[in-house]
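Q: My collaborator sent me two sequences in one message, no labels, and asked for predicted structures for both. Can we handle them in order? The first one she listed is below.
A: Yes, handling them in the order given. First sequence, followed by its structure tokens:
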Amino acid sequence: MSMKRAHLWIFFGLVFLAVLSQIGYAQSPVPTPSDDEVNRIAKQLYCPVCENVPLDVCPTQACSEWRELIRQKLIEGMTEEQIKEYFVLHYGDRVLAEPPRRGLNWLVYILPVVIFLIAVVITVRILRSMRKPVAEMSSSSSALEISEEELKRIEEALKKQGD
């Protein structure tokens, strides 16, 4: 009988420990994410209803509900990337503040750089073309030379006008 009692005590001991661990686990509160944590993620998302309004500052009821959804997803243990993927899955890429770097979205990142470089090249060419005529005029003074006969005719014409 002592062997049966030992097994019985071990069994009850294990059940007791299992119950205690569940009680302790159930009583430990899940930390609620702060508004700052929620807004850090909401700032990276745009309101699917309003155009060009970040989710963290949008005053609509829908956005308030979406911020609470973000809070709930954080409580469930989802990461920032998983929450953003959730919103993209339901509302598309347009909800992201920073478009994903794939497909035609690469144009958002490449096009400004290309336009800037083209503007620099055009500006340099315009500046060079503006300097060129001045340099040519100063180097060739023959364009400013007037023959003696032409100078005399101009002087006579001016005298006639003055009289």
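Q: And the one she listed second?
A: Here it is, processed independently of the first:
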Amino acid sequence: MKVAFATQDLKRVDAHFGWAKNIAIYELDENGHSFIEAVSFDGDLQEDGNEDKLGPKIEAVKDCAILYVAAIGGSGAARVVAQNIHPMKVTQPEAIEDLLDKLQAVLKTNPPPFLRKAMGKGKERVFNFED
């Protein structure tokens, strides 16, 4: 599954979603993780009430199952959830590598329902009906 991180420095989750200079995207499963890409944003990212800044960020994370942020506004959270992305807030800046390791450990055990659902994002479900 793909996991996104709102980050200013590409090393830690340390950014409000709307104000983030970068979104780092990783692929993760129970066996490991790999960096996919970093999407950078510029302009006046701290302008409150500027909903236009959210569009490109939502587009950047649309294939992700989880989005780690330091904070996210109500409008941003609603738009993220509408894309079936689970936002996760960190209470203080935390290293992306540490978060990936923790998430991977949970995947190896008994992940909670929201995480099992997130793991299936982007995968086709096939139903076989037999007579």
